[in-house]
Amino acid sequence: MSNTLTEIPGSDRRGRLQVDALLEREGIRRDGNLDYTCGIFDDDWELIATGSCFGSTIRCLAVSGSHRGEGLLNQIVSHLVEVQLARGSTHLFLYTKPDSAQYLSDLGFYEIARVPGSLVFMENRRGGFERYCAALAPRPQAGQSAAGIVMNANPFTLGHRHLVERAARENDVVHLFVLSEESGPIPSAVRRELVEQGVQDLPNVFCHATGPYLISSATFPSYFLKDSDAVIRTQAELDLRIFCQIAQRLGIQRRYVGEERASHVTRLYNEVMGQKLPEAGIQCVEIPRLTRDGAAVSASAVRQAIHDGQLDRIRDWVPPSTYDFFTGPRGASVRAAIQREADVIHY
Q1: Residue 133: phi, psi to the nearest 5?
Q2: How many Cβ atoms from other residues are within 10 Å of residue 343's Cβ?
């Protein structure tokens, strides 16, 4: 008897149906956002093991209950690691069910966080998350208060500035995490630069890159790609469990968020945050949006105005540094990229 390990392309309808059936039997929902799927088939061409990739992650791993103990999960994971390395991805992340975590740790993956009864999030670098946390500074001194903010800042607006100012007034130290993910026409380096310029007069605010650990395609792909509410909530809970670990190391006692009405996914994230952060002893402080002429100042509105070539409209919505960038020669290529987008509103 011999098994066959092979890719299952999107055009293979029979193979995809077998993947769905196997995952369902093992209590796993097939992720709607996958870019590679493989499977092991027996002599009768029946699927007995499967696994998939998305970005730098390995996910949707399952082995038929009647074939456990045959080393099939090892074969699937080894194959997917080879696929990732061929893509140039070396820092890999993996989702698995809690009862598979120990086995996967034997294959070189290390746990970062888990949602009890649901999933475990792992990486292939020993101490990778610990090194990320260790590089964050400063820690508050005894008696000092510390706050955290996580933002996309796509781009940095006066609404973002309003949130940071509030946190800076109410806390001794503010850790401001800016999303590292390349997810749109404004490069992450530009977003980070505009944030740093926009808060440089606030001496107790310290900017950090989120790396792959907070709101990234590894921890929270539904932030960038449409998905069901149930999936969004699970990913939000995972992301918040990672944030809470960071908060513990930095002494963060409060997380500040802007009230959200327009973005569906951010609104759901805020709802989960309001529930889960207090369970970890962290206060969730939701701030009403800054308004101009009765309308909320938002990055979506700024992108829409740039898309429509109405740069004068953004003058009252963004700090001078953001306005100067988008109206100056350095911002020309980014303006053009925004104007080429069919839809610049974050869902």
Answers
A1: -65, -40
A2: 9
The residue written with tokens 């074969």 in the block is: 75
Gap between the Cα atoms of 258 and 267, Å rounded: 10
Q: How far apart are CA 30 and CA 18, in angstroms?
A: 11
> pLDDT tens digit string along 250-293?
999 999 999 877 778 888 989 999 999 999 999 999 999 999 98
CA separation for the pair 286, 74 (Å, rounded): 45
Strand partners, 94: 58, 122
Rounded CA Rg of the chain:
22
Are the beta carbons of 8 and 50 closer than 8 angstroms?
A: yes
What one-character DSSP code corresponds to residue 58?
E
Size of the chain, expressed as the number of residues it contains: 347
Q: Residue with structure tokens 């306005």?
A: 323
H-helix or E-strand containing 277?
A: helix 264-279
Containing 255, the helix (H) or strand (E) segment is: strand 254-258
Contact between 51 and 38 (Cβ < 8 Å): yes
Q: Is residue 206 within 8 Å of 175, Cβ to Cβ? A: yes
| Distance, CA of 114 to CA of 266 (rounded, Å) | 21
Can you tell me the distance from the alpha carbon of 263 to that of 331, in angstroms, rounded to the nearest whole number?
26
- Say which amino acid occupies 310: Q
CA atoms of 340 and 306, how far apart (whole Å): 11
> Model confidence over 144-199: pLDDT tens digits?
999 999 999 999 999 999 999 999 999 999 999 999 998 789 999 999 999 999 99
Give the three-state DSSP class for 59: strand
Look at residues 183, 203, 199, 328 and name the one whose alpha carbon lies nearest to residue 265. Answer: 183
Tokens of 12: 């293979």
Beta bridge partners of 173: 146
Q: What amino acid occupies position 113?
A: A
Question: How far apart are the C-alpha atoms of 144 and 138, rounded to whole Å?
Answer: 12
Q: pLDDT tens for residues 49-87?
A: 999 999 999 999 999 999 988 999 999 999 999 999 999
